[in-house]
Amino acid sequence: MPKSPTRPTGFAVLRAGRGSFLLHRRATLVATLLGASLAVTAVVYLCVGESFVGPGEVVRVLAGQPSPDEFVVGTLRMPRLVVGLLAGAAFGVAGSFIQTVARNPLASPDVIGVTHGAGAATVAAMTFGVAAHSTLPYVSILGGLAAAALVYVFAWRKGLHAARFVLIGIGISVALGSLTQLLLTKGDYLVAQQAKVWLTGSLNGRGYDHAAPLASILLVLTPALFWAARAQRTVSFDDDTATALGVRLGRVRLCLTVLGVVLASVATAAAGPVDFVALLAPQIARRLTRTAQIPLVGSALTGALIVTVADLLARKLFSPIELPVGVFTAAVGAPYLMWLIVRTRSRSGGTA
Amino acid sequence: MSRATRRRIGPTAGGALLLVLTGLLVLAVLLSLAVGSRQIAPSVVVDALIHGGVHGGGSDDAQVVRALRVPRTLIGVMVGVALAVAGTVMQGITRNPIAEPGILGVSQGASVGVVCAIAFLGVHSLSGYVWFAFAGAGIAAVAVYVIASGGRGGATPVKLALAGTAMNALLASVVSGIVTTDAEALDEFRFWHVGSISGRSAEIAGQTWPFLLAGLLLVAATARGLDALALGEDVAAGLGHNVPLLRILGGLGATVLTGVAVAAAGPIAFTGLAVPHIARALVGTDHRWVLPAAALLGPVMLLVADVLGRVVFPPSEVPVAVMTALLGVPFLIALVRRKAVVAA
Amino acid sequence: MFLRHRGIGLGIGAVAVALSLAACGTSSGTGTGADTGKPAAEAAKKAVAKGGEDFGTAAEKTAAMGTAAKPGEWPRTVTHAMGTTEIKAPPTRVVVLDVGELDNVVSLGVKPVGFAPSEGSPELPSYLKQDAGTPKNVGTINNLNLEAIAGLHPDLILGSQLRAADQYDELSKIAPTVFSIRPGFTWKENYLLNAAALDKTEEAKAKLAEYDRKVKDLGAKLGDDKPVVSMVRFLPNGVIRLYANASFIGTILQDAGVPRPANQNIPDLAAEVSAENIDQADADVIFTGVYGDPKATDKSAVQGNPLWKNLKAVKAGHAYEVPDETWYLGLGVTAAMEVVGDLERYLAG
C-alpha cells in the first residue's frame, strides 16, 4: 500500500510517487472501459427484447427524436434499464463499503442481513397495510438499517470480529427470512402474491416511480460518497497507522457501514433483493484495477453492468416468460462466493 | 469440538437425566396431541388414545386426535430424532460447532433431489424418492465441505456457514429456474420448499422408519470414534481409529438421517444446530450420552415449535420449519458470541 | 415523456445518469395530472384486495361502467375502473389478462390474440380451448410481459384493476385498455363491460339471459326443499377454503336459490378452516375442488380421515369432486353454464 506521508489521503493519488500514479492510471482505464461496456450493454438492452430494434433507432429515441419504436424502447425498456443501472450501482457501492470496513471479501450486505431486513419490513408493511405504496422504499430502508443494527449489536463483543459479524449476519438473515414467511402466511393471499413477486427480485414492472426514490437518495448521498471515497483509504490502513495519522477509525467505519447499508436497502426497495451483486461487483472491480483497496467507481459500474446483463438474459432466455433477475445473479454469484471461499487468502479474522 | 475442558457424566446421573428428558418428550407429545386449531380437552386426548377409535365410533374430537394428530406427532418425533442426531454427528465429524443440515445446505440438497425425482422422473412414492433425497443430501454435503475446507485455515465455522449459504442460494436459483419454465414442478416445489409436518399420513411414518433405523445404527457405530476425534485427528488416529473411515461412516449416517427427515417433512433448519449443544451442556462431551440425549431433545424442540406454529395465526398454520428457525436463531447468536466458535 | 428528451448521454458514468434522472424522476412522480396517479390506483387496489369497503359495492360500481354509445357506433367511449377510454373502431386484436376476460371474449365469438395465464397452468382452460383459437402467451397474470403484448399490436386490452392497476399506464399506451374493478363475483358486470368495449352488448345480454333461464330452471327443478350446499376447496400448504357468497361459485348458487350453511352464507370470498375442523364443512351436499396438484394439498389427509367420513354428506354419498377450472377458477359465463350443468346432474339428476 502506498504510504502517503502527511497529507490528507484523498490527495495521495495525485501527489504520490510513480508507482501509485500507475495504479491510478489503471483504475481510470478500467473505469473507462467499464463505462464503455456499460454503454454498449445499455444499447443492446434497449435493442433486444420481444422485438428487435436497431441501434440507430435506439439512439434516435434516446435523443428524443420521433421514432416508431419510441414506445417499446422509451416507455417499456428505458425505465427498467434505469432502475437496473441505479440499483446495480447502489449495490456495487454498498458492497465496496461493507467489504472495506470488514476487510473481508465475504462480507456483503446480502450476507449480513440487510436485504432480508428490507424484505421483512416491506412485506410487513404490505401485510398490515400500514404504509402507502409511495412510502414503501423508506420502510425498506428502515428495515435494512434495523437488521444491520441488530447484527452489529449482537456481533459486538469487546470489538467487532469479522467472522462473528458474518455468522451473526447469516443467522439474522435466516430469522428475518422466516419472519417474512410468517407474515406471508398471515397476510391476505393477494398481498402475498404481490409480495412474492417483489421478493424474488425482479425488474419487471419497475418504472420511473421506483427509480425516483433511488435516484433522489443517491443524489442526496453524493457528497457523502465523495467523503467516503477518501475515507475508504484511511480505513484500509491498519489500526496503528491510522491512529498515528489521527484518523478516528471507529467513527469512519461506522459511517461507511451506515452508508453501505442505506444504499443496499434503497436498491433492494427498488428492485427487490437482487442477491450477490453487492458481493460480486467490488471483488470483480478490484481484480480488474488491481488496486489495494476496492475502487468505488469501478464497483458502481460493475454492479450496474452485472444487473443489466443479468436482466437482459432473464428477459430473453425463456421468453415470453421472464425470470426474475435475482435468479441469474444468484446463479452466478453463489458459485463465485464458493470460489472465493476456496481461494480466500484474506485474514479470516480481520476486524469489522 | 476442540474445547480444553472436557466434562463427563456418571452412569447414575446420566441415567437420571435421560429419564427426565424422556419425561419432557412425553409432555411434548401430549402437548402436540392436545393443542391445535380445534380445542380438545386433555382428558379426551387420553381417552382417545386408550379407548376411542376408528371402530369404536368415538366422538369427532377423538377422531381428530387419532387420525390427524397422532400421525403428525409421530412424524414430528421421527424427524426431530433424525435432525438432532444428524446435527450431532455433523458437528462431531467436522469438529465444527455450527455444522447442521439446514445451515450447510444439506437439507436443501435433499429437497431439490426429491422435487426433481417427482417432477421429472415421476417417482411418487416415498420409498422411491427417498433415494433421491439421500443423493441430493450427499452431494450437497460433500460439495459444501470440500468448498469450506479449501483455502486457508480449513473448514472454519464462518467458511462452512458461507459455503452453506452459497449452496442454499445456488439451489434456490436453480429451483426458480426450473419452476419458471416447468409449471408442473411448481406445485411440487411449493410443497417441498418449507418443511412442515402437517397433513402427512401415518403411512409416511411406516415407510420412513427402516431408513431412520439404518441411519441411527450407522451413527451409533461411530460414537466412540467421535469422542476420539473431538481430541483431534492425530489423537484419534493414535488411539487406533481410522479417521477417514470414521468420517465416511458418520457422514453417511448424517446424510441418511437428513434425507429421511426431508423426505418425510421437507427442509427444517436449526433443530440440528441447537439440540446437540443443549445436549452437550447437559450430559458433557461423551457421545454415548450426547447422542441419546439429542435424540430425546430433538423431538421436544420440533414438537414445541410445531405447536407454536399451530396457535400463532389460527386457523392458518405456520409451517414448523419457520418456527424452528425463529427459535433456533437466538441460539446460533448466543453460540457465536461465545469465543470458542470464531476462534476456530 | 419528459425524461427521454433530457438526452441521456451514453458515455456518462452511472452516477451522472443517476443525478440527471433524479430530477426527472421526482418531477414526473409528483407532477402533471396526465398520469392517472399511481398511489391512487394503488390505494384502490388495496381496498379491493383487503375486502375493504369497495368489496361489497364492486358489483354496483362495475354495473355503472360501460358506454353510452349505440350499437355499431364508433368511436365509442367506455367508462371503466381506471377512467374513460376511447375505442376508435371495432376491435379485432384483443389481449386478455385473466381467465375471466378470456371466457368473456371467447363466449362472444372473439378469438383473442394474447392471453396471460396463471402461474400454475400455462395452458388454456380446457373448456375454452375449442373456441379460443391460439392466443399467444403474454407472460403470467402477476408477471405480464408488456413487450410481448406490444408486439402483438392489439387494438383492445381487457383486464382488471385488482390484477394490473400498476401497469395500466403502459398498457393504455399500447392499446385502448378497459379494466373492471376485480375478477370473481362481479363476473356478470365484468362481462357486460367487456362486451360494451367490443360492441357485443346484445350478444352478452342474450348469453346472460340464457344462463339466467338455465339457473332458474335448475332452481325450479330442485323444488322448495333444496339441499344445503357446501363448497370445499383444497389449496396447497394445508389451506382449506369454504367458498362463500362473494365468490364466482357463490353467485351461481345464490342465483339458483340453493341454500348454504351459515358459515358460508357470508358476504366474503371464503372462510378458512383447518383439517381438524373439517366437520364445519358439513351440509346436505359437498362439492370439492383442488387447486393445482392434489398431492400438494391436505386433500388426502382430510378425506382419509374419519372426521370427513362422518360428515352427513359423505355418509349419504353426496360429496362430489368437481372440476376446479370451471367451479373455482372459472370467472365467466361459459364456466358458469358448465357449472349449472354439473349442478343439475348432481342435484337434480
TrEMBL record, chain B:
Chain segments annotated as transmembrane: 73-90, 102-123, 129-148, 160-179, 248-277, 289-312, 318-336
User: What keywords sit in the KW lines?
Assistant: Cell membrane, Membrane, Transmembrane, Transmembrane helix, Transport
Q: How does it sit in the membrane?
A: Multi-pass membrane protein
InterPro entries of this UniProt entry?
A: ABC_BtuC-like, ABC_transptr_permease_BtuC
Q: Does the keyword Cell membrane apply?
A: yes
Q: Where in the cell is it found?
A: Cell membrane
Family membership, please give it: Belongs to the binding-protein-dependent transport system permease family. FecCD subfamily.
**What is the protein named?**
Iron ABC transporter permease
Supply the source organism for this entry.
Microbispora siamensis
From TrEMBL, chain C:
Q: Where in the cell is it found?
A: Cell envelope
List the InterPro entries hit by this protein, alphabetically: ABC_transptr_periplasmic_BD (IPR002491), Bact_iron-sidero_bind (IPR051313)
Question: Organism's domain of life?
Answer: Bacteria
A Pfam family matched in the record: Peripla_BP_2
Q: Where is the Fe/B12 periplasmic-binding domain positioned along the sequence?
A: 93-349
Coiled-coil segments:
194-221
Which residues are the signal sequence here?
Answer: 1-22
For whether the record's keyword set contains Secreted, the answer is no
What are the record keywords, sorted? Answer: Coiled coil, Signal, Transport
Q: Which family does it belong to?
A: Belongs to the bacterial solute-binding protein 8 family.
Q: What name does UniProt use for this protein?
A: ABC transporter periplasmic component
Please name the source species: Microbispora siamensis
